[in-house]
């Protein structure tokens, strides 16, 4: 079977809502501009972890996009400003319930500010997996944004509920880019959190834990870097 790229996503600030793009630039370390900044609680210095701490549950409601200077942020997805804009930070503090501080991650480790956890370079989910979960939870709003993939692949329904779990160790070709499935993506409470247009729904995590051993989607390594565009053909070798 073959599929095609349905959606492409980048998340410039870890835990904040990402940006949907028509094209992604992929290098060996992953998507250019992806998860390059972090958000912390100014009072405690703790990095945001909405899926594990209720204190940070409002963070995914704010938006981030990558720009030449680094990142731009927005509360409503319309007015965009830099991460140190005083008016924005005050608005974020009211929305989050704490004063945030935004910092670029240290790509070389010398400054000590690293992501709370780091996974493989690329995260991929198929539409077949989304439809499977919709059948399992007909009363829930299942949306790819809950799972934060870089690549949503439009893939035919398979005998397996989550066909990409069978792609571990295999090459995934998307145009000139080649990925290799590394491991399933273990899920946390993030997939249950309310976001713009998505209600809170704890049954989603319960079902993923019960029926899929907590896994949904896969992490991939980059074999051949390049560019990926929406609509590109996807084959698995």
TrEMBL record:
Residues 73-237 form the MOSC domain. Coiled coil: none annotated. GO terms for molecular function: catalytic activity; molybdenum ion binding; pyridoxal phosphate binding. This is MOSC domain-containing protein.
């Amino acid at each position: 079977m073959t599929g095609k790229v349905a959606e492409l996503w980048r998340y410039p600030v870890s835990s904040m809502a990402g940006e949907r793009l028509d094209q992604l630039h992929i290098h060996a370390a992953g998507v250019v501009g992806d998860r390059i900044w972090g958000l912390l609680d100014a009072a405690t210095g703790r990095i945001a972890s909405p899926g594990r701490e209720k204190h940070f549950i409002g963070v995914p409601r704010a938006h981030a996009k990558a720009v030449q200077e680094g990142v731009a942020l927005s509360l409503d997805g319309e007015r965009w400003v830099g991460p140190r804009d005083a008016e924005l930070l005050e608005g974020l503090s009211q929305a989050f319930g704490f004063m945030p501080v935004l910092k670029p991650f240290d790509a070389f480790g010398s400054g000590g500010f690293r992501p709370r956890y780091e996974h493989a370079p690329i995260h991929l989910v198929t539409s077949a997996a989304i439809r499977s979960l919709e059948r399992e939870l007909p009363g829930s709003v299942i949306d790819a944004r809950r799972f934060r993939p870089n690549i949503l692949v439009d893939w035919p329904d398979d005998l397996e509920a989550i066909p990409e779990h069978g792609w571990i160790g295999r090459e995934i070709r998307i145009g000139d880019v080649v990925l290799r499935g590394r491991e399933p993506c273990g899920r946390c409470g993030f997939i249950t959190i309310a976001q713009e247009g998505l209600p809170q729904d704890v049954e989603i995590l319960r079902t993923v834990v019960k029926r899929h051993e907590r896994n949904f989607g896969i992490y991939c390594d980059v074999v051949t870097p390049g560019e990926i565009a929406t609509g590109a053909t996807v084959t698995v070798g």
